[in-house]
Design a protein that fits this description.
Length: 263
């Protein structure tokens, strides 16, 4: 299945700053792509940094001025499903910045109902989808799974954080993946959860807003702290505008209870 994805960011830097972008398709896909970064019209040369999961960060240095970032990619083929390591089994069981699994333990145990394995993962994703309402702009960047649980609303990353936190509380390693999502409405970067069952990572999306077979991985990590599309150091950098697009040559159907891996 062919997918065409793109992203355009307009940023304003107040002074000397270093930026890290996580907008490129993860390593492993067959990709024809381009990335252009300019400062007041002059090209900046990014440095690519790749992590253990294939996340490709692009670092750049800029001075005060208007920064424009344009990324386009045509994605074809399907890489092998994400593999799990012995470290994953420990790292993705621990509480993290936005997934307070230790705090949500009682809630998770009450909802588990004795379920295990795939049945448990499907149940938690379905339950979160029923408990939360998707409301654009309803959550703050500092909100974690506990705040989401109390507010009963959020955006995709909030749904993913709550799924991950509840699964970790039930001894299921879980993590967050940032993706391009053809079929998503409203269009944006999208976040989904992955759960480690029987030695394999399985993707679940409690929002149900985009078909999982069309997803393209960008970044992988404990939560949004590891998968943010932009991180800056130094002088303040403000986001002026952002446009994200993702289309597939055919939009597949998705059975919510079907097992599926995210490449």
């Amino acid at each position: 299945m062919r997918r065409d994805v793109h992203c355009h960011l307009t940023l304003d830097a107040d002074g000397d700053a270093r930026g890290y972008l996580a907008i490129a398709v993860a390593r492993g896909w067959q990709v024809d792509e381009s990335l252009a970064i300019t400062l007041d019209g002059a090209a900046l040369e990014p440095q690519e940094i790749v992590d253990a999961h294939g996340t490709r960060l692009h670092a750049f240095d800029a001075k005060a001025g208007r920064i424009e970032v344009t990324y386009r990619a045509t994605v074809t083929g399907e890489p092998e499903p994400a593999t799990a390591s012995a470290l994953d089994e420990v790292q993705y069981l621990r509480p993290s910045r936005y997934c307070e699994s230790d705090t949500l333990g009682p809630v998770a145990l009450a909802e588990a109902g004795g379920r295990e394995g795939h049945d448990l993962v499907r149940h938690i994703a379905r339950w979160v989808g029923e408990q939360l309402t998707y409301v654009s702009g309803s959550s703050r960047p500092i909100d974690g799974a506990v705040a989401t649980m109390l507010a009963r609303q959020g955006v995709c990353r909030d749904f993913a954080h709550l799924v991950v936190a509840l699964l970790r509380a039930l001894d299921v390693p879980a993590r967050v993946a940032a993706v391009y999502a053809p079929g998503l409405s409203p269009m944006d970067f999208h976040a989904v959860a992955e759960a480690l069952v029987d030695g394999q990572w399985w993707v679940v999306d409690a929002t149900g807003l985009a078909p999982r077979p069309s997803l393209v991985r960008i970044a992988t990590g404990r939560d949004a702290a590891d998968t943010a599309f932009l991180t800056t150091v130094g002088a303040p950098v403000s986001l002026v505008s952002m446009e994200v697009g993702a289309v597939a040559e055919r939009l597949p159907t998705d059975e919510p209870d079907a097992l599926m891996s995210l490449p």
